[in-house]
Every structure is written in C-alpha cells, then in structure tokens.
Amino acid sequence: MFTLDQIASALGRPVHGDGSLSLRRAAEPDVAGPEDLALAMAPRYEAALKAGRARAAILWDGADWQALGLEAAILVPRARLALAEITAALDPGPNLRSEIHPTALVDPTAQICAGAAIGAYAVIGAGAQIGPGARVAAHVCIGDHAVIGPDALIHPRVVIGARVQIGARFTCQPGAVIGGDGFSFVTAEESGVERARRSLGDRGPVGDQRWTRIHSLGSVVIGDDVEVGANATIDRGTISDTVIGRGTKIDNLVMVGHNNRIGEDCLLCGMVGLAGGSRIGDRVVLAGQVGVTDNTEVGDDVVAGGGSIILSKVPKGEVVLGYPAVKMDTNMGMYRALRRLPRLAKQVAEMRRAMGQGKRDDG
Q1: Annotated catalytic, 258?
Q2: pTM of the model
Q3: Residue of 118, 150, 181, 212 with fewest CB within 10 Å of its CB?
C-alpha cells in the first residue's frame, strides 16, 4: 500500500485534494478501481478515466480533476518522465536479502562487500569483487577477478566473464552475457572473403580453407549507470578492452562485438548489432535492428532509424536511415523516387510505342 502523498513526493509535485488516500497499485484509467492510482496523463485518456472507478489519478497539466469526479489528483507536465518516476517508486525489485545464499558458490578469495546479496546457486569466481549494496540473483555466474560496482542489480542467469569491470548502479536483465570471446578468426592464406573484399567481389577460386581463432586477451569495461537488456551479448576485446560509456542503455538481444567503444548516454535498441572495432560517440541512438559494420565511426548525437545498415563513417549530429544508411531526407527522396518507378516505366513504354508508331507512319 502507498498514499498519494508518497507519489507526490517522488514526483516533486503537489497533491490536489486528499493526499492521504491509500492505494494498492497503478492501473490503466479504464480498469482502475477505487484503490488504484489511474495513470491518465494526456487528454485522450479522459473518456477512459470516466469509464473506470478511480478515486485518484495522475493527470495532464491543466486538467480539471474535480470535473472528472476524482477525490484527488497530481498534475504533471511531462507524462513519460512522470511515468519513469512513478514506476521507480512502485517497483520493489527482486526480493534478495543482504546475505550470501547457502547454495551459492563463492571463491574464498572473492570480496563481497557489506550489504551485497548473492542469490541461490550463483557462482562468484576467484578474486572477484562485489560492491556494497549490489544484488546478484540466482544462477548468475561472475568470472575470476571481475569487479561489480556498488548498488548493481544483476538478474538471474547472467554470465559476466573474467576481468570484466562494471561501474556503480549497473542493471543487467536475465540471460545477458558480458565478456565472452570475440568472433575473430583467420586463415593461413588469404581467404576468399578477404579477396572478395579487396577486389570488390572477385574472390577467384576458393580451395581448402580452415579457420583459426584469434583469442580475446582484453575484457569489457562498463561505466556507471549502464543498463543491459535480456539476452544481450557484449564480447571482450582482442587486445584492448571493449568499452561501454557511462549512462548508456542497451536493449534486449543487442550484440556488441569485440573492441567496440561506445560513448556515454547512448541508446541501443532491440536487435542492434555492432561488428568489431567500431567507435560510437556520445548520445547516439540506434533504433531497432540497426547494424554497424566493422571499424566504423559514428559521431556524437547521431540518430539511426530502425533497420538502417551503417557501412561508412557517419558525421556528428546526422540523422540517417536506410540500407546503406544515408541522411534521412535523402533516404525519403530515394523512396519517393522508387515509388514513382512503375509509373515512369509505363510512361517510357508509352513513349517507345509512340516513337515506333511514328517511324512506321513516316515509312
């Protein structure tokens, strides 16, 4: 249970009406009952709010809460920011006690700081350090000499490799793997792929070709306040480390290859893939299914639309789209031209028929 006053304190906003109302959960406005906090933070939710039975709601700035039949309300100017603060206040997180579960396997040389929690069947390697207040859930595996910063939250079945360095307030969703080997192989002689790339397509005959692994001697370094989504993978570097900058958020099923360096406050949305050795600037947003080829530079503040494939350097501040990715206005022009192609082909065919008919008439 919580009160509307408590939510107002989390939002830093005043309560209109009875702030002592006791509530059980947040709810969509049309299904909210008397003990629910209805979230109706835009005028389009007015009808849904009237269809429900809520006594208290979070409303858009300027709403007439009394006319909506409410006993109390909080008005917010920015809905999604308010949603972030409300959900943070109401999310208890996993129920992990500040102790080491008896089934966990913790190497005697590992350092578990005060207030840390280690869940059932977790494995903590030799020389690893778990920071104060960190929570490591069930079946997590943390490799030798890895460092996990203060107040981290690592959900079940996460694997963190040897020597990985992670900052404060790290959040990792279930099933992610951080610090696996990079996908890097070489052949004894020049491979068909190398010849094709050098010659822009002419690879010639390809004989016996065996792949030899290039091992990853580097690791992964992650800054403060980073989040990594479920089943994401971040490979360690070949010689130097793979680096994820402070405040960057990585969605589910994202693949970060070896030797990538990602800046601060970036957003990498679902199914983004970064080949090895690329440099991603600060505040870059890569929408879903964006791909970045190897050894490519993406400048600060770049936004790449969903499904874009980045094959070459993108300068600072550009908004790109398409395959290959180009400036968004250029891409829109290309698509408009593409839609005109059937009509253009028809016009050309009509012109050819007319020209052919004219020649027969002249003869």
Answers
A1: yes
A2: 0.88
A3: 212
